[in-house]
Design a protein that fits this description.
Shape: globular
Structural class: alpha/beta
Distance between the termini: 74 Å
Number of helices: 21
Strand content: 5-15%
Number of strands: 9
Order of helices and strands: HHEHHHEEEHEHEHEHHHHHHHHHHEHEHH
Radius of gyration: 28 Å
Largest sheet: 9 strands, mixed
Helix content: 40-55%
Amino acid sequence: MLGHMSEAIKDMLPSSMDLSRLQLLVVSTAVGAGGLLVYFLVIRRRTKTKTLPMGDGWWGAGEKPLAEDEEIHPFQIETSDEEIKDLYMRIDQTRFTPSLEDSQFNYGFNSTHLRKVVSYWRNQFDWKKQVKLLNKYPHFKTKIEGLDVHFVHVRPSGLQEGHSAKPLLMVHGWPGSFFEFYKILPLLTEGRDGLVFEVICPSIPGYGFSEAPHKTGFDSIAAARIFYKLMQRLGFKEFYMQGGDWGGLITTNIAQMRPENVKGLHLNFFPVTKHNLRMLVSLLLGAYVPFLVGFTREDVKRIFPYFKKNVYEMLRESGYMHIQATKPDTAGCGLNDSPVGLAAYILEKFSTWTDKQFRDLEDGGLERKFSLDDLLTNVMIYWVTGSMVSSMRFYKENLNGNPEKRPDAKIGVCVPTGLAVFPNELLHGPLVWAQPRYKNVISYSYMLRGGHFAAFEEPELLAEDIRQFVKKVEK
């Protein structure tokens, strides 16, 4: 019985030649399956990388014409005696409200110190001199989607033979302007270690000297499309970008829209809007076992206690955002009519957003990081252009619904990304929180000092971080 079974089993086994064929078949099948797996996981995934639909728009007055002037025109900032006379008249008619005793900047801009700032503005500040300073760099305007888009374009001088400048788009936020970048421009456009930049600083439509949209719906995605078109019109097929505040969101949107044109994205502000289980777990465990949730000791120092440093602080500092995201035109009326009201509203942000501890100072710490000339020049850009209301509307257009349901919230950023986190920023963003959106972070820097207005406040630190990031990309 056993003999018959062994003979039957032997008959069922393949011969040595059949065995070789079988092995070859198995190997071939494995290689083929492996190839298909590689294709589906790598090649197909790469070709199916999601991008933000670019779309199109028209934000000019009336109907869209058949053709639009695409010329780039030189622009110069001008002023007049009449403009200055009107400013002085309005300042002289200001009705100040007495500040509370021992209130410092905890109730907003302290009116006692406001009188001192306004006195300097009225009697010592030289707007004509500052206009000359603003015109130090070349300004231009060009029509895009019905709007006159203003930008500063600074090319490096004396480029060494064999070297080329890296195009860099830098975008400001609120309540800033292109002037925020005036201190960092010479640091970037002067060659160092074989690296030099050609910098383009546009004004967001509705801010400063860029025309305001005439229609509702102009959000960061529309601004991103316009600035992408600007870079194409200037002849830049590939370029770097840098931004903070709204500038950080706009440049992120460009990277989502046209990743093939973006060599690298550098941000100094990247709010985390998508809250998930991973983030919740990191908040529950991060203070006790930070290494388990991807936190560093510096992350723990900047985040915890969480409710005090994030929830409570943001409640104290975000009242303006709720107003501007709902009824910007109502609050904007007074700011557009009163230069002193406008200055108080803007400069209070340059106090607290630079360092929250400045709330406890009588002068708001304004001149610890900035000069009054620089601060008032930024205010004057809003005043002479009458752009405060239109700049506030940008909040309404971007925060008019659930941020997590915006089209850009569902799309990752795959371009090389550098993140510079400043210790006095409104919110701290750990790397582990940034990575779900920014998929290719090659540089993450804990900056030594500084707050929200990085380029204006710490130009040397920011310039150095931009340089080290670009060097990593270029390797």
